Amino acid sequence: MRILTAVLVLFAATLSVRADQPLLDNTVEFTGQIFFLDSKVPGLVIGVIRDGETAVYGFGEIAKGSGRAPDAGTRIGVGSITKTLTGLALAHLAADGTVGLTDPASKWNADLNGLPDHEGREIRLIDIVTHSGGLQRDLFPVENRDGGDTRTFPANLDSLPLLYAPGTGVLYSNVGFDVLALALEGAAQQPYTAYLRERVLDPLGMQNTGYGRPEGANTMTGYDWNGDEMKPPAPAPNRYGASRIYTTAEDMLRYLAWNLDRFGEEGREARLLSHAAWLKRDGLAPVYGMDESGHMDAIGLGWVVMMPEGDRPLILQKAGGADGVFSYLAFAPSRNVGVFIAINQFNFAAGMEMAHVVNELIATLAPR
Questions:
Q1: Strand locations in the chain, DSSP E?
Q2: Are residues 233 and 357 in the same domain?
């Protein structure tokens, strides 16, 4: 991995400030090929957008023995990258005045009346979307309760106290984003999946992104740390905010293009809300589970914000892991460059290094 980083630094010295398409293609292919060979995962796909130009390259196989490399249209389960879409759904509802970011989550869905509080301080929408609600990471089974049902899932939360007062610390929480989706469903007055499709996915042209399990041969199969295939579990109802989105590299580049269009008309208020650093790290305690893909300096609406460091510009990023697939999405909003990458094995060292490689690639393509 150190060799790969050193090679990227050397390559950066020969890269012009504004790359034409052939040079962008060469840079993306080079980076993907070296990382694929170094990580030894079954398959890898990487897509980059820079100044409106895009490049996508795939290496290895979408499934062992398939002989088929992943490409721009390969369906991929991106796990927690879903959270950025949930954050954007909240941003749209806030931008049009439907909700306030400081509204209690329970205000928008009666099924959330069982949410715990801390000495009368209720969990707000902004607390949930910034992982600062005091909720645990995942929901543990509670005797005689079914955590998958819409009415008992939030009710399970009252069995444990909050881990800290909302807004005072950060603990990565999948539970929180599933709760957030339930609140947004109430605010939108329609099923959350339908609202996300109508307000977020369709306007961005992300037709190959959604919650339905992929059909067809061009789907990335994930493998565990032992190299054994991982089959996605049966989908649980009403657990849409934290994970479960399937997408393609092509759609992720569309998503990046919209996020990079700082002065575009479509959804401009929601974009500003989504990207803003709502919660700064300074003074928070505890802070857990936020630094695997790079040091978290602040949190947007689902995005991890990393302030500029050295040659690297400011980056908004989010990692995901689901069913044997690790993925990472990152962009530099003021530099007009973004990257999506996915590998199909739970190789934890490679997953962390993957984010480091992407962050270095962004610094290479758009140095300060």
A1: 43-50, 53-60, 76-77, 170-171, 222-223, 229-230, 246-247, 279-280, 287-288, 298-299, 304-306, 315-322, 325-332, 337-343
A2: yes
357 and 237 in one domain?
A: yes
CA dist., res. 109 & res. 183, Å (int): 5
pLDDT digits (tens, 9 = 90+) for 9-62: 434 433 333 446 888 999 999 999 999 999 999 999 999 999 999 999 999 999
* Ramachandran area for residue 187 (φ above 0: left; ψ -120 to 50: alpha; else beta): alpha
Tell me, yes or no, whether 198 lies in a domain: no
Q: Can you give the residue range of the structural domain that contains 317?
A: 2-79+211-365
Q: Is residue 205 part of a domain?
A: no
**Model's pTM, two decimal places?**
0.92
CA 140 from centroid of its chain's CA atoms: 23
The Cβ of residue 16 has, within 10 Å, a number of other Cβ atoms equal to 7
Residue whose entry in the numeric block shows the structure tokens 């929601």: 270
CA 277, CA 298: separation in Å to the nearest integer?
Answer: 6
